[in-house]
């Protein structure tokens, strides 16, 4: 299977690495925004709880075969769920998740300069088996 070089670059940028220079016509950003637009009809959303040793969201969303950091927002049940997942032993990570919700179209930037998205969780379906 041939890998798209834009996605390889996106994968490198979504790790907890150094910041990318801000360019108005960024092809990585454009590709991510296009992929996010295609998620609206996808239920359940495929995520995983996979905290990193940096100040980035602990969840990731599957986006065109790659993982992108995702900040989960929602009601108190979502926050309780994240608190419970935070107690997961390291050897059991990542924890696959299924959620019903909406991926906000605006890309976020982590303090390290990586891309992330915000997922508004409508319903917790379950950690997947």
Helices and strands in order, then pairings?
Blueprint: H1 5-14, H2 27-37, E1 45-49, E2 59-63, E3 66-73, H3 76-85, E4 95-103, E5 108-109, E6 115-127
Parallel strand pairs: 3-6
Antiparallel strand pairs: 1-2, 1-4, 2-3, 4-6, 5-6
How would you concisely characterize the structure shown here?
This protein has 129 residues and is of the alpha+beta class.
Descriptive overview:
The protein is of the alpha+beta class and 129 residues long. It is built from 3 helices and 6 strands; from the N terminus they run ααβββαβββ. The chain has helices at residues 5-14, 27-37, 76-85; strands at 45-49, 59-63, 66-73, 95-103, 108-109, 115-127. The protein has a 5-stranded mixed β-barrel with strand order 1-2-3-6-4. The chain is globular and about 40 Å long. The two termini are 27 Å apart. Residues 1-14 and 17-23 have low confidence and may be disordered.
The general outline is: globular
Main β sheet profile? 5 strands, mixed, barrel
Radius of gyration: 14 Å
Strand order of the largest sheet: 1-2-3-6-4
Which terms would index this structure?
alpha+beta; disordered N terminus; 129 residues; 33% strand; five-stranded mixed β-barrel
